[in-house]
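Obj.: predict assembly geometry.
Materials: sequence records (below).
Method: joint structure prediction, all chains together.
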Amino acid sequence: MPTSFQFIKSVKTNNSVTSVDMTDVFTTKYDMYLLTFSELDINGAGAENIDLRLLDSSGSAITASEYDYASLQLRYGSSFTQDRATGQAQFLMGAGYVDATSVGAGSVVAYFYSPASASYTFFQHQQVNTSSHSGQKYIGVHKSAEVITGIQIRVDSGTIDRFGASMYGVL
Amino acid sequence: MSNTGIFSPKDINDLTSFGQWSGMAGQLELIETQSFAIPVSVVDFLNIKEDQYNVHFITLNTMKSEGDNQEVINFRFYENGVLEDGSNTYERARQTFSNIPSQNFSESRTTSDSRIGTCFGTGNATGEGMGGYAYFYNLGDKTKYSFCTAQVTGLSNDAHYMGSFGSYMMKQTSVVDGIRVYKNSGNYSNFDISLYGIRFSS
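Observations (raw structure tokens):
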């Protein structure tokens, strides 16, 4: 059972960017990692995608079709839906429903399992958003046996105008 | 600043200068624990240190009800010491799962509610009750809505297993300076609730 979160790194930006990298956060020191991000402002047409990619041992974002995921999309005002895919080029965290807003587009607590070992990396998170498509429960796996050192958060269109995230090792 | 979990004296000095050194204590910092002493219907956390933490974590254990079939894990927020309980204050998107024959797997959603409600009523028989946890986001940021994700589990009033996970929002840009945990009716017969701040969370 986890007994402690050990802070590793925070990243913040107030610039208009399309991606933010969190580098050199995964090591063999921890088997399990906790990611929080509560500060997220999106500038775009609305209904944006938020993607997460993993960084390889050289710090480069992995764009190969190696990501599988399944999620239940929770909505405040309409029926819930399932979203699942295999062989994707990223984890699709906000499947076309993240508001363009400056009041907080969404927040996430996520867990990563054994990313720094040369094996598949597993991932789960629970998310809450401002839009009528309000959040999701999510599992994912990166199906390549390789060492992962960090993550990249990105948008397909528009920009990330404000973002803050923190990574912790779980003991 | 970042680290790999192995600290040199220089790392410690640097971390201290950044206000990020906490020894080996970790960054899940207990703000307050409240445990059952006498029957009450509400449990208020009014010193939540919202100016220090972007993400709060709450654990709820042995949540038991005096009366039968009553909800034991609901939340409301305080703004400037005033309880926010208006009928259009909160939004909810919750997946509930159980072996209650009439319920099984059900969606619970609304765009106007007076509370963050996490599950059905639990019973007051031996073994019945609930537990769970929740994360709260942006409570101290006056430019942001306040968010919550929660997961709970327990036994219904007829001892059926049940649980839920959900996303919740108070759609107001404000500073939240308190959290109320409460029952929809009647008093608690037991509870053990701890509120934590996640240090350096963004």
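Conclusions so far: Chain A touches chain B through 49 residues (CB under 8 Å).
To do: check interface contacts against the pulldown list.
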